[in-house]
């Protein structure tokens, strides 16, 4: 977890029951919205704050319950990713800046810039703290993922991915880092020494985001090829492929998030059937891949990021083009 004006009016609240085969199409139950020029979003680990950022020069910190603005942190334009430290005291961002120094850590209490890292040449695309908060991982356009020590900013490892890295994610135990790249590969790295453990393949397009399930059983990734793939974490065996409908052959899946209990999977999507472009949030049951709901009410925009609240009661998503941040009740 990255402007613009909302384009829709009345929100229709759906009260449809969900069964194992039912799916609904419409708007989620809205909690609040903000026109923040947002393209990336992240919850603090206690679920109290949301950070969002995008093509503008600011990161907005908002109360997750009601959307009240808590703080605005100024950086430079083109922020691609934001992430809270596990204790909620620090916020990292990665952005587009060809000169380097495009990876920073701010203090949440007052917005003070704490560290500026070398980052990645051209752009830092993704940032994430390790579960214990001691390390920060980043991925970027220089075809590497990097692991940094948070206490002093020292570079621990540079991982030669071989293609532009668009997403990084730590496994819940902190021992493995997952990267997703432009070449369509998902790679698992041992954090202690930077060794490549496993490469997962199958996509025909760029990997847009990677995630690991809370119980450490699954690796999930999304792609511009319109699919979401799940593998078994322990040995990399394929588990399931979730595809956008045949009616949207040029659609792509932009983002992914597991619910805290590991039972639900959200994907953010850019669907074209064939026109106009429209963004959806799809809700799947992890156990069997059943499609539970499709939220589809954004015309001429697409969903650029999704995030589940650590409290499990709500989720957030951002829309590219108009930059609206939406927080809605969990389906």
Task: Write a structural description.
The chain has 331 residues and is mainly β. The protein has one domain: Methylamine Dehydrogenase, Chain H, CATH 2.130.10.10. The protein is 0% helix and 53% strand. It has no helices and 29 strands. The strands form seven sheets. Strands 1-26-25-24-23 form a five-stranded mixed sheet, with no helix packed on it. The two termini are 21 Å apart. Residues 1-23 have low confidence and may be disordered.
Brief characterization of the structure:
With 331 residues, the protein is mainly beta.
Topology:
Blueprint: E1 25-26, E2 30-35, E3 40-43, E4 49-53, E5 58-63, E6 69-74, E7 79-84, E8 90-95, E9 103-107, E10 113-117, E11 124-129, E12 135-140, E13 144-149, E14 155-160, E15 165-170, E16 176-181, E17 186-190, E18 196-200, E19 207-212, E20 218-223, E21 227-232, E22 238-243, E23 252-258, E24 264-272, E25 277-285, E26 291-299, E27 302-308, E28 314-320, E29 324-329
Parallel strand pairs: 1-26
Antiparallel strand pairs: 2-29, 3-4, 4-5, 5-6, 7-8, 8-9, 9-10, 11-12, 12-13, 13-14, 15-16, 16-17, 17-18, 19-20, 20-21, 21-22, 23-24, 24-25, 25-26, 27-28, 28-29
């Amino acid at each position: 977890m990255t402007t613009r004006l909302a384009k829709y009016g009345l929100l229709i609240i759906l009260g449809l029951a969900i069964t194992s085969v039912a799916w609904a199409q419409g708007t989620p139950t809205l909690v609040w919205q903000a026109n923040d020029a947002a393209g990336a979003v992240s919850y603090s680990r206690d679920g109290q704050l949301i950070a969002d950022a995008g093509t503008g020069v600011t990161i907005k910190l908002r109360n997750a319950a009601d959307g009240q603005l808590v703080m605005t942190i100024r950086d430079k334009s083109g922020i691609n990713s934001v992430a809270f430290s596990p204790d909620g005291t620090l916020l990292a961002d990665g952005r587009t800046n060809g000169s380097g120094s495009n990876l920073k850590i701010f203090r949440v209490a007052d917005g003070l810039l704490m560290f500026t890292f070398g980052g990645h040449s051209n752009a830092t695309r993704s940032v994430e703290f390790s579960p214990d908060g001691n390390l920060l991982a980043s991925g970027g356009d220089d075809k590497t993922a990097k692991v940094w020590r948070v206490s002093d900013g020292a570079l621990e490892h540079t991982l030669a991915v071989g293609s532009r890295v668009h997403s990084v994610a730590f496994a819940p135990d902190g021992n493995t880092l997952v990267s997703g790249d432009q070449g369509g590969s998902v790679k698992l790295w041992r954090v202690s020494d930077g060794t490549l453990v496993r490469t997962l393949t199958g996509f025909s397009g760029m990997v847009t985001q990677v995630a690991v399930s809370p119980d450490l059983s699954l690796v999930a990734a999304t792609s511009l090829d319109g699919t979401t793939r799940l593998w078994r974490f322990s040995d990399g065996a394929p588990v399931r492929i979730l595809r956008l409908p045949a009616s949207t052959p040029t659609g792509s899946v932009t983002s992914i998030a597991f619910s805290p209990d590991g039972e639900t999977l959200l994907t953010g999507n850019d669907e074209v059937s064939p026109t106009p472009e429209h963004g959806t949030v799809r809700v799947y049951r992890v156990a069997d891949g059943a499609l539970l709901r499709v939220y589809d009410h954004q015309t001429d925009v697409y969903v650029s990021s999704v995030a589940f609240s650590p409290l499990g009661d709500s989720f957030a998503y951002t829309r590219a083009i108009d930059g609206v941040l939406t927080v809605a009740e969990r389906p």
